[in-house]
């Protein structure tokens, strides 16, 4: 179900722009043009995800609508044409998400980013570490206003426990001086385990001595805030660091993933497979490495076009996910796929791979007005202790035999020698 956004704005053109932005983020929009309308609306309907509020309305020239909307617990973003310090202080003294000066079109791009963060911040977990409950609660309140998921700790030692318990923590905001373990030592400990690409650390200190920011940064922190900080600076630093982390995640995903099927690509398959095979061999877990190739795929492209070919590749990827949910699946290139999976024994592994082949062979793939049927040839190596490139070579040779023998079959590496 769509979230609802309340837009309090007396200018029709500006309300239209905000409505377009909100709709692009899938919000349902309700517009009110003055304070009386807002009061009337909220007296019977308060189910809003957030609100944007124009500071000056015809019947509320001095921001009175802000307190009204906030009193219903609706997270609010203030849009203002007034830039003076007094207005800014007045707005920031209230628990608003943000305020945006309506200087130029950048204001609306920024509004879109703020709304997007508000919708997605719950995916980011932040650990707040401070021995002062007042200071800790203040930071937690600011983060919750922005919809972050928050975990807390009283000192560095507790923080390390929390990091071990909550694997999805993306950022640690830590005070400097704390009993048992302070912020610098905690940062140091964190960097033994987590890289800056995995976890961001922001140090906080009230000490007037500037040396602490440098100490935090030199010990592996990404940023520093000096107390007392204003909410604007706090949010800017948090969002910048979270966005950096998210961008790194996106770049890593793009570098490791096949763009068409979203399976692992050759590079990431090799890295992950080598790791898994080491574990299987050391624990003597039965495993299989299979090379999978679509039969006569060129004919699909020739008869139905390249886009149809792409569609078939995506469908094969879907079936791989369905059949090998715990395996490591990849598109190595072209119409060639690979899977590494462990199981109870060789028979069990063979059956899983052959079930996948059969499932594809009896399925039809809708392409526009047509349906296409395809088959797969598969070469498999079981429990090999050879290097990964050698295993792939052996599975490839078995795959070649599957093609030679008439396609649509699984050939086990070495089985041809037994015949
Ligand atoms: N649509 C599409 N086609 C691709 C892609 N990558 C490779 N191909 C096509 O895959 C086809 C592979 O053809 P061949 O190597 O001749 O093999 P085949 O037709 O599958 O025949 P066998 O392997 O002998 O069964 C070529 O036509 C390539 O252009 C892709 O990303 N998308």
UniProtKB/TrEMBL annotation:
<dbReference type="InterPro" id="IPR011006">
    <property type="entry name" value="CheY-like_superfamily"/>
</dbReference>
<dbReference type="InterPro" id="IPR029787">
    <property type="entry name" value="Nucleotide_cyclase"/>
</dbReference>
<dbReference type="InterPro" id="IPR050469">
    <property type="entry name" value="Diguanylate_Cyclase"/>
</dbReference>
<protein>
    <recommendedName>
        <fullName>diguanylate cyclase</fullName>
        <ecNumber>2.7.7.65</ecNumber>
    </recommendedName>
</protein>
<dbReference type="InterPro" id="IPR043128">
    <property type="entry name" value="Rev_trsase/Diguanyl_cyclase"/>
</dbReference>
<dbReference type="InterPro" id="IPR000160">
    <property type="entry name" value="GGDEF_dom"/>
</dbReference>
<feature type="domain" description="Response regulatory">
    <location>
        <begin position="125"/>
        <end position="242"/>
    </location>
</feature>
<dbReference type="GO" id="GO:0000160">
    <property type="term" value="P:phosphorelay signal transduction system"/>
</dbReference>
<dbReference type="InterPro" id="IPR001789">
    <property type="entry name" value="Sig_transdc_resp-reg_receiver"/>
</dbReference>
<dbReference type="GO" id="GO:0052621">
    <property type="term" value="F:diguanylate cyclase activity"/>
</dbReference>
<feature type="domain" description="GGDEF">
    <location>
        <begin position="285"/>
        <end position="415"/>
    </location>
</feature>
<dbReference type="GO" id="GO:1902201">
    <property type="term" value="P:negative regulation of bacterial-type flagellum-dependent cell motility"/>
</dbReference>
<feature type="domain" description="Response regulatory">
    <location>
        <begin position="4"/>
        <end position="117"/>
    </location>
</feature>
<feature type="modified residue" description="4-aspartylphosphate">
    <location>
        <position position="54"/>
    </location>
</feature>
<dbReference type="Pfam" id="PF00072">
    <property type="entry name" value="Response_reg"/>
</dbReference>
<feature type="modified residue" description="4-aspartylphosphate">
    <location>
        <position position="175"/>
    </location>
</feature>
<dbReference type="GO" id="GO:0005886">
    <property type="term" value="C:plasma membrane"/>
</dbReference>
<dbReference type="GO" id="GO:0043709">
    <property type="term" value="P:cell adhesion involved in single-species biofilm formation"/>
</dbReference>
<keyword id="KW-0597">Phosphoprotein</keyword>
<dbReference type="Pfam" id="PF00990">
    <property type="entry name" value="GGDEF"/>
</dbReference>
């Amino acid at each position: 179900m769509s979230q609802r956004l309340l837009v309090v704005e007396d200018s029709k053109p500006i309300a239209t722009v905000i409505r377009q932005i909100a709709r692009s983020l899938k919000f349902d929009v309700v517009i009110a043009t003055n304070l009386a309308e807002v009061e009337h609306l909220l007296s019977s309907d308060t189910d809003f995800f957030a609100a944007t509020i124009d500071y000056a309305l015809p019947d509320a020239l001095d921001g009175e609508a802000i307190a009204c909307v906030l009193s219903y617990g609706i997270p609010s973003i203030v849009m203002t044409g007034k830039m003076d310090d007094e207005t800014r202080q007045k707005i920031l003294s209230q628990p608003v998400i943000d305020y945006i000066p309506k200087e130029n079109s950048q204001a609306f791009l920024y509004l879109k980013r703020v709304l997007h963060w508000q919708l997605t911040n719950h995916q980011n977990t932040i650990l707040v570490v401070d021995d002062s409950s007042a200071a800790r609660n203040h930071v937690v309140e600011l983060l919750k206003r922005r919809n972050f998921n928050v975990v807390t700790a009283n000192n560095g030692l507790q923080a390390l426990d929390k990091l071990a318990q909550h694997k999805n923590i993306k950022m640690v905001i830590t005070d400097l001086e704390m009993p048992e373990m302070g912020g610098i030592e905690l940062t140091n400990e964190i960097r033994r385990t987590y890289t800056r690409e995995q976890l961001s650390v922001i140090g906080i200190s009230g000490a007037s001595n500037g040396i602490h920011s440098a100490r935090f940064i030199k010990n592996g922190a990404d940023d520093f805030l000096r107390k007392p900080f204003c909410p604007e600076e706090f949010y800017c630093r948090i969002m910048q660091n979270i966005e950096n982390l998210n961008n790194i995640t996106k770049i890593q995903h793009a570098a490791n993933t096949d763009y068409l099927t979203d399976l692992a690509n050759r590079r990431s398959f090799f890295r992950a497979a080598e790791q898994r095979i080491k574990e299987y061999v050391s624990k003597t877990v039965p495993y299989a490495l299979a090379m999978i190739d679509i039969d006569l795929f060129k004919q699909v492209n020739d008869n139905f076009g390249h886009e149809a070919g792409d569609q078939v590749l995506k469908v094969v990827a879907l079936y791989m996910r369905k059949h090998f949910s715990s395996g490591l699946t990849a598109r190595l290139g072209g119409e060639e796929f690979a899977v590494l999976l462990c199981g109870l024994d060789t028979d069990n592994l063979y059956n899983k791979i052959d079930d996948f082949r059969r499932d594809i062979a009896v399925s039809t793939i809708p392409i526009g007005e047509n349906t296409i049927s395809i088959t797969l040839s598969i070469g498999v190596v079981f429990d090999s202790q050879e290097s990964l490139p050698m295993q792939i070579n052996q599975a490839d040779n078995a795959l070649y035999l599957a093609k030679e023998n008439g396609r649509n079959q699984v050939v086990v590496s070495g089985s041809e020698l037994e015949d």
